What does this fold into?
Amino acid sequence: MSEPSPSASAPSKGHGHLTLWIVVGIVLAVVAALVAPDFSSALKLGGDIFLNLLKMIVVPLVVTSVMSGILGLGDVRKLGKPGAAAVGYYLVTTLLAVIVGILVVNVIQPGAGIDGPAEVARASAEEKMHGPADPNAPKTIGELLRSLTMLLFTDNLLKSAAEVQLLPLIVFAILFAGILTIRGQKSGALVDVIRQVNDALMDFVLLLMKLAPVGIFCLVAARFGQANASGHLADELRAIGKYMASVLIGLGIHGLVTLPLILWLFTKRNPYRFIGQMSKALLTAFSTASSSATLPVTIESAIDEAKVSPKSVEFVTPLGATINMDGTALYEAVAALFIAQAFGIHLDLTGQIVVAITATLAAIGAAGIPEAGLVTMIIVLNAAKLPPEGMMLILSVDWLLDRFRTTINVFGDSVGAAVVERTLPAAGD
It folds into this structure.
């Protein structure tokens, strides 16, 4: 979720109403699907329009948001030990969260046994995923690693953008923004343009979020209407319950085991007492579903209650609000594999590694506003060659899961501040 900015933090007063309207839309969609399944199925057009609007901004938003996050670090050569520790901590914990999510979803298999949105979509997804048999497909670990490495680089950025190949675009954005931080004032005008474009795109996302209740109503009504008409509604509801359980179990493991263990290993603090000290920020994160809106409370709780060095808190937590998305990355990995299972698409080791890498990198660009994970979810699905239409399977519960994953994001920020405090030359000052 992004560093607080006027555009990012603006929804802090109104996102409660957004969540309420989304819940109302979901309830009405379920009622419509039960009462008039044929009519509900016809609402798919509205849902498709909403999905296309989300997909339309993916490429420019990924590039500008990743660049803005890197530019916010200042001259990358001057980050020093604390900066390297903070960035390293956030990337490692995000990757650990993704791995936990992938393990949980492979064990529970929440999408097994349900039908994808349509046989035509299933066939299209299979073709998109696998295509014709590839005689050059990697057969050894070495070939697999080489294939994965080459996914990060492209010889044509415009072609990658047109084909929504996001990994090389993210790599380019990181490298290019890093160079701009080194050039300093010589690139001031270009930096301003990038930030202005990113802010404008964030405003566009906020506009889409205002339309989200209508779009989600159409998607959920169409999906449940189709399931009810075909007699599979009960099976789908059970699968959604298992999907929710998978996400919550994964978040629980990361928030109550992985992060506390990291905190204890590096600081010898009692991690569960630390959770109590950060409880005000965690409750605020759950109630607002926005890490940007929660940031002032996170800083206050970390300094006044958890007694973490102000120098560390004021450096690490805003940075974390930009690149630390443990909960979001875990959710996206679980959702991608759930959708693959629901469509009957087998994701092999390569596919699951692509999901892990993309969820980790896409989390860098997730905005600090409610439901912004919808945008980055499209990124992960595109990278794994999964049908974006599969999002209709998870939208009915996304508003609730958003609150849990935001809480984990904020807790990860506070743990990061405590860990990085040990690398500061005068952490106690």
In short: The mean pLDDT is 77.
